Amino acid sequence: METNTFLFAFGLTLFAGLSTGIGSVLAFFTRRTNTKFLSAALGFSAGVMIYVSLVEIFAKAKGQLVSDLGLCPGYWLTVLAFFAGMLLIAVIDKLIPSYENPHELRRIEDIGASRPDKEQRLLRMGVFTALAIAIHNFPEGLATFMAALTEPGLGIAIAVAIAIHNIPEGIAVSVPIYFATGSKRKAFLHSFLSGLSEPVGALAGYLILMPFLTPTLFGILFAAVAGIMVFISLDELLPAAEEYGEHHLSIYGLVAGMAVMAVSLLLFV
Questions:
Q1: CB 51 within 8 A of CB 261
Q2: Residue 66 sits in which domain range?
Q3: What is the DSSP string of 89-121?
Q4: CB within 8 A of 268, min separation 6: which ones?
Q5: Which residue among 47, 69, 150, 199 is the one 20 to 30 A from 140 at the CA level?
Q6: Taking the complete model, does pTM exceed 0.85, yes or no?
Q7: CA–CA distance, 82 with 143 (Å, rounded to integer)
Q8: The total number of structural domains that make up the chain
């Protein structure tokens, strides 16, 4: 593998992970959450990830595995790997208590909404949210990294989609820590570190798998990546968009994301 390709894939993963810092900055310098923008943006992100997973990544994985193993075994293995990816992220999600889960959204205006006697609980909530996001970001980082290694254009689309998805997570970390401690520095640091787990997860996963990375294993990983991204879209992005209370905007964003991804793929045909 060329060094430039590796660095490009890692750079995209780093960008996607550290976008949690954007959410942290928004929490400090914006008085209210722009619900319309976030609903549309999260829907757009989900549209990109669902379309590219089902139309492009799943198809590439199937093509590779069918070529290596034959039609029936290859197709079966693709489907099994797809749902195994979903199962992996679902198990990670299940192991995190709901009150510390990054899917529990916090708005910027909630910073001043709690009483002083809850400061310790808020601090704990913020720290555990950062840890929860860090755990979630490991498979997301690997997904972005593997896609970028295979097809740089695809990697860019996925990195942007995940970056959009990470912005509310940065808010979720920053809001309780900032209110509990009054320190923007601590709140930003926790948010920043939670995002770092994405490139770290990508690098660790790649180094572990690199000695065994045959075309067949690559096909299995690609199918699992598709499952991970579809699950994230259905379990995190769309419910988050709904939580912000802009149902139609989230659906318009979803369709727009699919359309933009479809056109961008057609340009490379």
A1: yes
A2: 3-266
A3: HHHHHHTS-GGG-TTS---GGGGG-S-GGGHHH
A4: 153
A5: 69
A6: no
A7: 12
A8: 1
